[in-house]
Amino acid sequence: MAKKIIAVIGSEVCGLSSVKCCLDEDLESVCFERTDDIGGLSSYQQVLKYFRMYVKDFNLLNCIRFKTTVYSVKKRPDFSNSGQWEVVTECKGKKKVNVFDGVMVCTGHHTNAHLSLERFPGIEKFKGQYFHSRDYKIPEALTGKEYYC
């Protein structure tokens, strides 16, 4: 019997651990990452060093396809018999249709920043700067500024 192939979408903590679990269960795994590095939104934190060690220690790098965007995931026409999924990706301007036995979506719940500004009465009068924590990358940019949490 052929080894089952699992698609993992995203290479942050859930994606990386999913790839490792697949390998531990003797499944083949392909991880699609739209950027050129692991870590997702954690790429500006200390945890990225841990992710790099994790990938190296468990030899996961060869499972990750960088700069690859996933456009769609859908059941194959014969899904009721095969249980397989069709995943459409694009890398370097070339679209590709991939077939997998399973799919894990590990993009995280912070992929799209959401500022619930409606919960802050008077925000429309606020003259200062506000932004989502995912946009905080350079602490020096805020040096000498007042802030409120």
TrEMBL record:
GO molecular function, one term: N,N-dimethylaniline monooxygenase activity
EC primary class: oxidoreductase
KW Flavoprotein (keyword) present: yes
Source species of the chain: Sciurus carolinensis
Protein name, UniProt field: Flavin-containing monooxygenase
SUPFAM superfamilies linked: FAD/NAD(P)-binding domain (SSF51905)
Entry-linked Gene3D superfamilies: FAD/NAD(P)-binding domain (3.50.50.60)
Protein family: Belongs to the FMO family.
Pfam families (UniProt xref): FMO-like (PF00743)
Listed cofactors: FAD
Membrane-spanning intervals of the chain: none
Keywords for this protein: FAD, Flavoprotein, Monooxygenase, Oxidoreductase
InterPro entries in the cross-refs: FAD/NAD-bd_sf (IPR036188), Flavin_mOase-like (IPR020946), FMO-like (IPR050346)
Protein EC: 1.-.-.-
